[in-house]
Structure prediction request, 623 residues.
Amino acid sequence: MGTTARAIQALPDLLVSQIAAGEVVERPASAVKELLENALDAGATDIVLRLEAGGTSRICITDNGAGIADEQLILAVTRHATSKIASLDELESVGTLGFRGEALASIAAVSQMTVTSRTAAQSSAWQVCNAGGQWAQQPAAGNLGTTIDVRSLYFNTPARRKFLKTENTEHAHCSDVFTRVAMAFPGVGFQLFKDGKLVQHLQPGAWLQRVGQLLPSGVAETGRVIDLAAGDLRLFGLMGEPSESRGRADAQFLYVNGRFVRDKLLMHAVRAAYEDVLHRDRYPVYALFLSLPHRAVDVNVHPAKTEVRFRDSRGIYDFVRKSLTAQLSSSRAAPVETQRLSEPVAAWSVTGRPHDTGIGEFLAAFAPVAQREVQAPIPDLLGHQADASLHPPATSYSSPVSYSESPTGVSSAAAFPQITQVPAKTESGEYLGQAIVQLHGIYILAQRADGVVIVDMHAAHERILYEQLKSAWDGKAQVESQRLLVPLVVPVDPRLIEGVSEAAGLWAQMGFDLGVLSMNEVAVRAIPALLADHDLAGLLQSWLEDLAQFGVAHTFQSRRNEWLAGMACHRAVRANRKLSLPEMNALLRQMEQTERSDQCNHGRPTWRHFSMREMDAWFMRGQ
Ligand code: ADP
Ligand code: MG
Prediction:
């Protein structure tokens, strides 16, 4: 470039902090996150956050935590100064949200900052501020705890200021951060002020109550509370029902050891669990907390700490996916008319945490349960035991459909279940009631003791068939295969070629005959008959990508499921097919026996219950 060579020199401290600020304080919301985390690490139980102009003109946070001793105030705002770790060993088992000792220094480097703090040992507060590029300390008025007042963010870094969006957008990002943090600390009270107006006031309380205030309305009331453990791993939280899914992925909260993360692996595992009950373009709502020993996860991967690295990522992936899949496959049974939010959830209510350990008690609430494979202290409020989830109810009925007649393992007689047995009377397990009539060729109206049930017969039948197809496949399986006259040569990324031979048996089971030709070419000699019209090269590539990322078992299962769902939809009873009463009742009884029968394969509900109480209210009876 023709510039004169300069001597190497160490950068001034302020410039180093300004460079670091690029990562740590990407936008006002990142500063908000760091400041909230500091307050929590200090053991605060009450936190007030004030934002002005989306955080760009002011972020002020007051907490009632342990405070910073006067002689340490300057250190607190110095780069690489922290009270949270002192050695590599402590870094590897860090239990606080912060540990890098750079947030305050970075924020101060790009703003005008005042820190006011008082510890229990002090009779009055002290304050430092960085006016004029120098830190000055003086006595001040202040309660126990800390107030950090950040003004004019990026006033001295115009380049960064240009990247800011509108005040409303920046405020929305800050508010997202606030929500994420508040969701993980139900025992802490939070207030959020926007330009002087109180917009969010969260009282300390039970987790389920907190989550109900922060998730889209209705989700917490109907969602499934889970608490599962395997070895050192524990997964706690709330899974939104498929029917509460959204068009955007804007209500998905994942935490690792209390820390909000965006982790591809975990997100994929959750997605995979919902795959079977949700249409592709729908996004489930969830708030899930994974906890594991600190040493099993590296949180020091990214300056903002929203990424983590697991020692045993495959094991964690499988644990999360399998436990959630099992949860979603158990039917909700009859809706019980309880107000979920009014019921306390045992074992989950984080109140005051010890000041010196920060999120210690939060994590203790997650502490892995030694020597227990499945932990189930919390009955789901609809009456399920959480441990039932890892052992989905065995399908005890024997299907009336014979699977022996076609190479796909599915008889074409599956067009509609043949009636072999008609249950004579309603037993307690028959929560869908007794069929009365078919409505408009689409719905079945059934009556049960406490009201009526309406069933979408196509949606329900589709799910039944789909589950039957899956178990038929698992039982024997060998898909109908179609040989190609001339083998097709497909180019494959050399990284992925291993996947071809690695899973040889499964490819064959799916109906493929593949051979590795070279480092980057695969010969396709036979394909599943079902795929005759597909773009094979693209398909193979995407399978191999999945294989490399998610492993053999998941890839084959999810692809298999895609096909079987298509077949089920195709074969399910169509509208206007007239059903007899015994046929309708048989369908209801099959639904009760079928996993995931509350949703069709696209995630739509298959049935709804209307209670007598609701109907009485409609007609104002007894009022
Ligand atoms: P880190 O959180 O990684 O240690 P920070 O720069 O965020 O680094 O904070 C530096 C130090 O200042 C912390 O280690 C802590 O001792 C102290 N500190 C920061 N904020 C607070 C607060 N709100 N209450 C008490 N101490 C705080
Ligand atoms: Mg910090």
The first strand starts at residue 46 and ends at 52. The first helix runs from residue 13 to 24. The pocket of adenosine-5'-diphosphate (ligand 1) is lined by residues 34, 38-39, 42, 63, 65-68, 76, 82-84, 98-105, 146 (CB under 6 Å). The chain is about 30% helix and 20% strand.
